[in-house]
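Below sits my pick:
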Amino acid sequence: MSHTVEKIGGTSMSAFDAVLDNIILRPSQRYNRVFVVSAYAGITNDLLECKRTGKPGIYQLIAKRSPDWRQAMNDLEQRLLLINDNLFADPVNRLRADKFIRARVQDAKQCITNILEMCEFGQFTLRHYLPQVREFLSSIGEAHSAFNTALKLKTLGINARFVDLSSWNNQYTGDLDDVIRQAFADIDLSQELPIVTGYAYCDEGLMKTYDRGYSEMTFSRIAVLTEARQAIIHKEYHLSSADPRIVGPESVLPMGETNYDVADQLANLGMEAIHPNAASGLRQNNIELKIKNTFEPEHTGTLISNAFTPSQDRVEIIAGRDKVFALHLFDQAMVGHVDNVGYDIMQLIRESSVNLIGKEMNANSITYYLTGGADNLNQVLYKAEKRYPKAAITGRLVAMISAIGANINTNEALRRGMQALMQAECFPIAAHSSVRNVNVQFVVDDNDYQSAICTLHEQFFALPAETHTPPDSLAECQSAHVA
């Protein structure tokens, strides 16, 4: 158990000189490491849809049968070639990189064209093929970045191997674990440096099962199956006390150390620490996870482990999510039957392909907090109204914000949070404390999202030093307060 498995995020991959200097070439040990790479920043958004705004990408254009998908593919190809141009000064290697990605894009164009032509006949329906289209489109970005990285490292004298888990040529088969075992069967980690695609084609369908968290699942399963000493994620920012884009990079503090309970709470809110299913595998196999800042190689980052137990009550992070759809159902006749209603609504939620991130209920009402595409959310609302015509059903956009810590006094955190928000005239719609003493959650109007984040961060972190000094092991992290 002498090796590490390391994932490099998309924004970091786009700053490839920093990746080379700060991650790959920095330590004296060149091997006994596995790198799982994401697509360059923005590429998967162009292939599928924008993760933040939902702006349609190539996949969405195909799903709507828009003829614009061809031009979008051409534009994407030019963007990928421009990345190659910036990465490879050597014309020979540039030609190799261009040849590889041109072939992938051309294959994709031909495959999509054939599917659309076939679906012009009544016996074939496009929606039956869309999951497969989404799968192979998502693989293009990771294949591009992994091939380029391996090629670049070879020019520097490193014995790098491009490990393509996308099965573009039916190289590997089976479920995700089988695919990984086949790919690593003949790799000697002491002599080779595997550069692995974040996307892996498998029987269960990585996109269908985990959506945009697929690269983290690949990363996690590789760490588990190869019995890694440690798993490391390299990002463009520290895992900090709040989002530096909202609070300001000068105000946030790196977390330093925490446990998987906190990581799970962050994942539930959609924060990109690690996908909950990916964290589960690491947690069960007692593999530590470290989150590091690509641009600060000297910093130790944040260590997530089973072993961490805080020595004092301390909120570690203020995390939140805006544009959350609150579906509220009130029916006086629900008294005594709330479980039945809840079961029906959960069926509607699953059918509409939206994500449930929270729920609250009393004798005659239930509120579900959902995220997803606008069309899908409206579909849930429409189906709920149709299913319960006598109920009062409403939907509105809210923001959910949590104060999270490995072991916090939830009553005290709830009191302080409510008081701070009320003083800032940011009036909570709802508030909840956790029995497990891990998080306290506040629901506010969507327009108050950023101000509520800043207010709560100031309440729990901008206090006199003696009231919230972390353990000695975190002193270095607090002195280096950067995003």
Notes: The chain has a mean pLDDT of 89. The first helix runs from residue 10 to 14.
